[in-house]
Structure formats: C-alpha cells, structure tokens
Specification:
Distance between the termini: 33 Å
Structural class: alpha+beta
Number of domains: 4
Largest sheet: 6 strands, antiparallel
Strand order of the largest sheet: 1-3-2-6-5-4
CATH topology of the largest domain: Heat Shock Protein 90
Number of helices: 11
Shape: extended
Bound molecules: adenosine-5'-diphosphate, magnesium ion
Order of helices and strands: HEHEEHHHEEEHHEHEEHEEHHEE
C-alpha cells in the first residue's frame, strides 16, 4: 500500500486484475454448469420414478400440512420430491398438482395441492412454460421473477415425468442474480472512478500541447495537478488490487500468531507526519496483558492504516485520536478488540450500515478532495471477515466516530 507504481507496474496490475476477473467469472460459470448437470440428472431419475408409480390409483386428498411436503398420490412421489433441493411440483395431464415437496409448499402454500397449477401460480410465464412442456412433451425452461410467497427469481424447468405428468422444478436464482448485479455495479463504479482523473489528465495534456505550450508558469501548475490525478489513479488501482487479492483468499484463514505491540508502533510511526501536520495527538490505550492474535500482520496493518487515515481525514484539526486495544469475549471465543476513535463531525445514522459498501461515501466530493477512493472501509471489512472477526462503526453527529474490530486471540485456539 502506498508504494508508488511506475507506469509499467500499473499496466501489469491492470492485467492481473483483468485475469483474476476472468478466472472468477469462469469459476462462477463452472459452478452454475455443475448445478445444471446435477439438476438434469435428478430430473431424469425423478421422471423414471414418477412413471413407475403412475399405474397406482389416486387416493383422496390429505389434509394440507402447514409445513412439509404434500402429495395426493401415495407417499412415494413426495418422498422423491423431498430429495430435491429446489421447490418441486408434480402435475398430472390436466395440470392438477399431484405432489409438492416442502420447498414448494413453503413457496406456493399447501392450499395449491390438488389445484390447477395455472390457477395456483397465476403467472403468464409459468402457464406458458407448463403448457409448452405438456404440448410438446419436452423440457421447457424459463427464468421467472416475482412468483411465490417470497417473490423470488426462479428458474423454472418443466419436464415430462411419464404418463403425461410434468415435473416442475423451481430453482431459486435470486442470490446469483443479486451477485451479478453487484458485480456489474462494481465494474461500472470502478470505471467511473478511474475515468474522472483520466479525463482531467487528457484535458491538461491537450492544453499543454496547444494553448499553454509556451507558458512555463501554467505548465508547472498543470503538471502538479496531473501528478495528483495520476497518484489518485494509482491509489485506486492499488485498492482495487487489494480488494481482489483479499477476496481471492477470503476462505483461507490466517494462521500466523502475532504480537500486536509492534503493529501499533508501526501505525504510530507511519502516521506521525500526517498527525503532526494536523496538530493531532495519538493516544494509545493498550492493555499491557494483550494476548497474541491469529492474524495476517500485513492485513491488520492495512485495516489500521485505513481507519487511521479516515480518523485523520474526517476528524477535527487539533483533536486527539485514540487507539484502544483490549481483551474481550465474543461468540467465537476470546478476541482482542481494537478501536480507533476520533473527535469530529461524525456520521448520520442512516449512512452507517452502508459505509462498508464499495465506493459508498457520505460526501463523495469531500472524500475525493481528501484523496479518498471510497474503498478503505470495504477493504477493512473484508480483511476482518477473513479473520472471522466483526467490524463495528459507532458515531455521534457533532461528537465523533469510533470504528472497532476484533481479531481471534491465540488462546482461543488451544
Ligand atoms: N472516522 C470517520 N469520520 C467520519 N466519516 C467517516 C469516517 N470514516 C469513514 N467515514 C465515511 O465513510 C466513507 C467511506 O470511507 P472509506 O471506505 O475509507 O472511503 P474514503 O475514505 O476513501 O472516502 C467516507 O467517505 C466518509 O464519508
Ligand atoms: Mg478511507
């Protein structure tokens, strides 16, 4: 962090970022393809199973259960449907619902059993998918938004299940759609953040090539601005790289056992110049009996650096910044809680839950003027999550802000 990248380094980083994005996309696609393969195999098995029971005479409707699966045939189809992860519904040749598994009962209600599916799930896309599958005696697949009690995005697959029956499987794809949207938003935001300084640079280059070509005073001023904008782009690329690195190993828990004292010393040293410039004092409130923690030292430094930078930027000139570290008990066991508190304008309550979102800022203009990228807290949160810790933001307007996080104490591992 903070290392100056030369142009070649920046280019290289960009390619790593692109490459990791491609790898991530490929991994996501692969996982999705697997789901489909498994889904298709289960459907084929079910079709065979349902066909085997087709000859038995139908029994009367059972009392619809409030929870759990339901079937108006013998119990076998519901047992088979229960083995499916997705909501599954079996319908007869007249579109009457013969059986539903627990997920389907949860999504569409037990009252749907015995009803015509076209009435039970009154949605044109569902009706079309089911009638197509029935008429053409083949699989019909469609993504449908806003059906069921939880208004989920479902991927409906209707397929023949023997004896003119249809098996409908409703795969909940809402989380995947949400992730896709977030990814798209992130790329759009990152591009926008990079484009702003880039546009400034291009503008100044054109001015220096044309109207200001022979104006040494203007040239010196413009070069200053250009250097600032280039530095901003470097910071942004650095932060984006950090974020993608942290995401890549978010499931690998840190294993090192480290002392926190040298970490705090490091923070005091690296922030000394900025603190001095703003007439700020650093107050360290460290428990002398602090246990060691299981953590990635560089990442802990990064969290502390990001929180310190914020306290310096958004706190009031001349006021102290307090760093506290103490033992605490959490659900996961013994932890060390570290907090950085400043005196400043604070943050209005409605913003607090969103501050760890990428690029979310209370005042974007102010953050940019102060050299912010809008990624500092998102990075901090990801790192803390990788350590299975929690990050908490408390703030009072006109008083100040305290941001704390926990790290697992090494004693909790014994
Ligand atoms: N100590 C603080 N006091 C007041 N506001 C803060 C503080 N820390 C963070 N914020 C708010 O949270 C936003 C996001 O912080 P961060 O992710 O570090 O991005 P950046 O500092 O680059 O804008 C900041 O823009 C600011 O509005
Ligand atoms: Mg910041």
């Amino acid at each position: 962090m903070g290392d100056d990248l030369n142009a070649e380094g920046a280019g290289w980083n960009r390619w790593i970022a692109v490459a990791s994005a491609v790898v991530l996309a490929a991994a996501a696609g692969y996982a999705f393809a697997w789901q489909e393969v498994i889904g298709a195999a289960v459907l084929a098995l079910l079709a065979a199973a349902a066909g085997a029971f087709a000859a038995r005479p139908p029994r009367k409707l059972p009392e619809p259960a409030a929870e759990g699966s339901a079937s108006i045939d013998d119990v076998h189809p519901s047992i088979t449907l229960d083995s499916l992860e997705n909501a599954a519904v079996l319908v007869d040749r007249n579109f009457g619902i013969l059986a539903m598994n627990a997920e389907a009962v949860d999504a569409f209600g037990a009252h749907a059993l015995g009803e015509d599916i076209r009435i039970a799930i009154r949605h044109p896309a569902v009706i079309e998918t089911v009638t197509t599958a029935m008429r053409q005696n083949r699989d019909s697949i469609r993504e449908i938004e806003g059906i069921g009690r939880h208004s989920t995005v479902f991927r409906l697959r209707a397929g023949p299940a023997g004896d003119a029956r249809l098996l409908l499987s409703f795969a909940d794809v809402s989380p995947a759609r949400l992730a896709e949207r977030m990814r798209a938003d992130f790329v759009a935001n990152a591009s926008h953040e990079l484009r702003t300084p880039l546009a400034t640079l291009v503008g100044f280059i054109e001015t220096l090539q044309g109207p200001a070509a022979n104006d040494p005073a203007a040239r010196a001023r413009f070069l200053d601005v250009m250097a600032n904008e280039a530095a901003r782009m470097t910071r942004l690329v650095d932060d984006l790289m950090s974020l993608s690195r942290i995401e890549l190993d978010k499931n690998i828990r840190p294993r090192e056992i480290i002392d926190l004292a040298p970490v705090f010393e490091n923070v005091a040293t690296t922030s000394a110049v900025a603190l001095e410039a703003d007439k700020r004092q650093l107050v360290m409130n460290l428990d002398p009996e602090l246990p060691q923690v299981i953590a990635d030292k560089d990442q802990v430094l990064q969290v502390l650096h990001n929180l310190m930078t914020n306290a310096i930027k958004y706190g009031r000139t001349g006021t102290p910044i307090t760093v506290t570290a103490e033992r605490a008990k959490a659900l996961q066991g013994e932890v060390v809680r570290i907090a950085i508190a400043d005196v400043g304008d604070g943050i209005a309550a409605e913003h607090i839950p969103r501050l760890t979102e990428r690029f979310y800022r209370v005042d974007t203009g102010r953050s940019r003027r102060l050299g912010g990228t809008g990624l500092g807290l998102a990075i901090a949160k990801h790192i803390v999550e990788r350590h299975r810790g929690t990050l908490e933001i408390t703030s009072e307007q006109g008083v100040g802000t305290a941001i704390s996080f926990t790290l697992p104490a090494s004693v909790s591992q014994i």
